[in-house]
Amino acid sequence: MENIEQRIFDKTCEVERLTWLGALFTAIQADVTHHGGRNAQDLADMGKYLAAEFEDSTSRDIDGLTQTLEA
Fold it and tell me: Structural domain of residue 47, as residue ranges?
């Protein structure tokens, strides 16, 4: 049961991360539309940071699942 609860938690985190990315893309779109894209580079840098964090977190999740499977 604990494994299922952990997977539910992991998926909930993924949904939250996707919500953040959606908000970031909305901000980039609004910046381009209303401000000529003057903040686009900073927003893109933020997106790259978030993507790297999400990749790291997901890789750790995969490693944990792999270790559990191999045990």
Answer: 2-62
Q: Which of 25, 26, 23, 28 is closest to 39 using CA atoms? A: 28
- Confirm whether 69 is domain-assigned: no
CA angle 60, 65, 69 (to 5 degrees): 145
- For residue range 10-42, list pLDDT tens digits in order: 889 999 999 999 999 999 999 999 999 999 999
User: Is 68 among the domain residues?
Assistant: no
DSSP state of 39: T
Is 42 contained in some domain? yes
Q: Is residue 54's pLDDT more than 80?
A: yes
Q: Is residue 44 within 8 Å of residue 28, measured between CB atoms? A: yes
Residue 45 lies in a domain: yes
Given a cut of 90, whether residue 1 has pLDDT beyond it is no
